[in-house]
Amino acid sequence: MASFFRSHSPSSRRHSVAAACAMLLTGMLAQAQSTPTETVNVTGRSASLPANVTGFGEEPLSRTPIQAVTLSLTSLQDAGTNTLGDITRMDASIGDAYNATGYWAGVRVRGFELSPRSNFRRDGLPINAETTLSLANKERVEVLKGTSGAQAGISSPGGLVNLQVKRPRGDSTTLSASLSERGGFGMAADIDRRLGVDGDTGLRLNVAAESLRPELRNANGQDLAVALAGMARLSATNLLEAELEINHQSQPSAAAFSLQGSTLPSARQTDPRLNLNNQPWAQPVVFDGNTASLRWTHMLNVQWRTVAQAMTQQLRTNDRMAFPYGCGNENVYDRYCSDGSLDLYDYRSEGERRNSTVLALRVEGQLQTGALTHQISAGVLNSDFSARFHPQAYNWAGVGSADGRTVVSAAPVAQSDSTSRDERSTELHVYDQIQAGDFGLWLGLRNTQLHRASASVLSGTANPAYDQGFTTPWGALTWQLNPQDMLYASAGQGVETYVTPNRTDYGAQAGQPLPAQRSRQVEVGLKHEGQQLGWSLTAFDIHRPYVNDTGTTYAVDGLQRHLGLEAGLDWRDGPWSVHASAMLLRARREGAASAADNGLVPTNVAQRSARAQLGYSPAAMPGLTVQGSVSFEGAREVLPDGSVQIPAWAVLGLSAKQIMRASGHDWTLRAGVDNLLDRRAWKESPYQYGHAYLYPLAPRTFRVSVQVGL
């Protein structure tokens, strides 16, 4: 099959995959009509799941005074989600933030960009997300919304993303294969075994390999993931779990478009398949990651247990790009030239190393004091992180063009400085969930002690090391109005830390840390959890210090305030199902030194967004589900002064899934098309490194997959 797609043109590949989608859809209908299957009438919803990212254990989300979403493996597969960056299609509060093909995921929650260094977790432990994070061995993705000072010592106020690893559950084997628009082909195996007479030990092996062929040109690559998880019940009170994950991805990343002078290019006239990172000398970005963890759970008694965890993450990256940036001919560097020309740089950072080690210990259980019931968790987490780099190439290579036709010469000499970093932190936390009848008091407190040091790669000169300490509280009140409805109010804080860029033009301020900056959030919500209907309505107010980088100074300048309203709906009745979410956001700058800056909307923040999926499972065709989806994003600012916007956009999707039993095995066939109407629009407008970028929506894309359980 791979040789077939190599030997045919992209047009014939698209027609072939479209035909495969049509044939699979037809086959699903025929199979549903002709194959005897056991009919199951689904009339209600599944129970609300817990989310470990909240820090409150197995408490269902419907009874937790925190807004979060849990994206199961099945829902991710049904949506055709292959990468962490694709989760932005799943919930209205989650948006793109420099989310480029071939690079690590850039995600916003409630309008705030999540930091890849501090806002990502794996089985509840902090990881570095400056890499591609495979979903091949993950059973779900959890996203916490809002300030997370009680869950993380340092984090931006948008929320947290937690990847929950698959563990041994039973005896099963699942094989799958997928095919995408331009011939991208993937295969995966999930082999789960419980061993021993009593099943007290188990192993789970996940292997996935994919030939990456996105619609974006000049971005073909490969992806490989191998993961092994094991468990052993040493005794009635001791459970030992271990896992190892190896990931490799090699793929050229996507270069963005930009303003052309003062003009916003027409998205309708821009080819979304064009990648400006298309020079003959352009090389792929290579991400290699090894992660291993160990978890020991010891039951002290029926109500109390201790959990000890250790994790190590080792990342290796070759970051390369033909990088378009600015216009020297017109002496402007936040956009491209008026005539569509641009400065093109040869960027290469070879052999980047980022290593993390995490040790955590917690004790948790239940305590009764009079009429009050306490669910308590207390623990300590120690984290060590180091980043080592080599001199980089960041050299002007010539004048390119926004049509991608101009070829310039390579300039690969590595002569630019970089900064090696070391960071060590110790976090102490305590949570107490106090229940008194229908009322609950939820308390969380985290103390963090942080040490950081850095040094120039070229000179070896060390910047001043520094230590910071801070405590971040959180609290909530809940009122269970009835078995289905809960009202809550919460307030909490988070902390971010900043260091002035290590550049000589910052003078005496270069490399100096700012005081830790506190974000604050107040939230009020109402949740309903019924058999057929679940919904939530939440209002939040987040204040975050605005750190302004003028290029020569680095200082706090007022606040960035996000005032918002979120709504979520999950409904199922007979053959019909609806899952929908929406967010209204008022994001503004306040208290700035210059009155002209007050009231400005932050760049790349959509202040209106909605997601909806409508499913139908006809009783006459058992096992078949047809689903339509819509994603809507409001306008986004392109420049900090608010003078240019990209318009709002909406895209439709259509998919079908057939579950059936044939030849003694369970089969799942999926087919889908994203951006059904081939909508052309600017998807997002990240403003980074003093430059305005534009990323288009991906064009219409077909996909098919087959999965079999053995």
Itemize the secondary structure elements and their pairings.
Elements: H1 2-6, H2 10-34, E1 68-72, H3 73-78, E2 94-96, E3 107-109, E4 112-113, E5 120-122, E6 125-126, E7 138-145, E8 159-165, E9 172-180, E10 185-195, E11 201-212, E12 221-235, E13 238-251, E14 285-299, E15 304-324, E16 341-369, E17 372-388, E18 393-401, E19 419-436, E20 439-456, E21 466-480, E22 485-496, E23 517-529, E24 533-549, E25 554-573, E26 576-590, E27 608-616, E28 624-633, E29 636-637, E30 645-646, E31 649-662, E32 665-674, E33 682-684, E34 687-688, E35 691-692, E36 695-696, E37 701-709
Parallel strand pairs: 5-8
Antiparallel strand pairs: 1-7, 2-3, 3-4, 5-6, 7-8, 9-10, 9-37, 10-11, 11-12, 12-13, 13-14, 14-15, 15-16, 16-17, 16-18, 17-19, 19-20, 20-21, 21-22, 22-23, 23-24, 24-25, 25-26, 26-27, 27-28, 28-31, 29-30, 31-32, 32-37, 33-36, 34-35
